[in-house]
UniProtKB/TrEMBL annotation:
Its EC number(s): 4.2.1.19
Gene3D superfamilies, A to Z: Imidazole glycerol phosphate dehydratase, domain 1
Name used for this protein in its record: Imidazoleglycerol-phosphate dehydratase
Cited InterPro entries: IGPD_sf (IPR038494), ImidazoleglycerolP_deHydtase (IPR000807), ImidazoleglycerP_deHydtase_CS (IPR020565), Ribosomal_Su5_D2-typ_SF (IPR020568)
Primary localisation category: cytoplasm
NCBIfam families recorded: PRK00951.1-5 (NF002109), PRK00951.2-1 (NF002111), PRK00951.2-4 (NF002114)
Organism lineage string: Bacteria, Bacillati, Actinomycetota, Coriobacteriia, Eggerthellales
Family per record: Belongs to the imidazoleglycerol-phosphate dehydratase family.
The UniProt record lists the keyword Lyase: yes
Length: 196
């Protein structure tokens, strides 16, 4: 059975449709209206081996905040739906990703308790068309709506592009590890509670 889901969400600020396939090979079609954000989501999908179709119409004439945050909400909801009851998943995942001088760790638990712990220091400003404050907003929305505990920690780096690219790739790789099916679990939920 394919672990795939489509979520559509329309507000006065954004109109978003997202499809994810957790058992894909990293194919991505991303159009958010913010080129650098598209680049980051494409990298996350490729390195997470998650097929993603992300189509967003947002009020980017105001700024990118609603587009970026709402995209995180919808991707998170799609991941949660695709996971279903989470039976048989590995649950935990982590990855260190170097990107030239930058080094970022992402570690996560598909716990059902959505939260972000962010230790990334970048200056206020823009990278491409993305406000640097918005990467954190994306990951908050993603973690909350996917029901994952996500730690993103910068260990080195000066170039904002490199830091963010390492963060998105690390998150993708950690997700890939955590959503993987563990045959040894024989379809059981990986929790002493019996549910996640």
């Amino acid at each position: 059975m394919a672990r795939e889901a489509t979520i559509c969400r329309t507000t006065a600020e954004t109109d978003i449709a997202v499809t994810v396939n957790l058992d894909g090979c990293g194919r991505a079609h991303v159009d958010t209206g913010i080129g650098f954000f598209d680049h980051m989501l494409t990298a996350m999908a490729r390195h997470g081996r998650i097929d993603m179709d992300v189509r967003v119409k947002g009020d980017v004439e105001v700024d990118g905040h609603h587009t970026v945050e709402d995209t995180g909400i919808v991707i998170g909801q799609a991941i949660a739906r695709a996971l279903g009851d989470k039976a048989g998943i590995t649950r935990f995942g982590s990855s260190f990703v170097p990107m030239d001088e930058a080094l970022v760790l992402a570690a996560l638990d598909i716990s059902g308790r959505g939260q972000l712990h962010w230790a990334v220091e970048v200056p206020f400003g823009m990278v491409g068309g993305l406000d640097t404050q918005l990467a954190r907003e994306f990951f908050i929305a993603l973690a909350t709506n996917a029901g994952i505990t996500l730690h993103v920690r910068q260990l080195a780096g000066d170039n904002v592009h490199h830091i963010f690219e390492a963060a998105f790739k690390a998150c993708g790789r950690a997700l890939r590890e955590a959503v993987a099916v563990d045959a040894a679990l024989a379809g059981e939920v990986p929790s002493t509670k019996g549910c996640l």
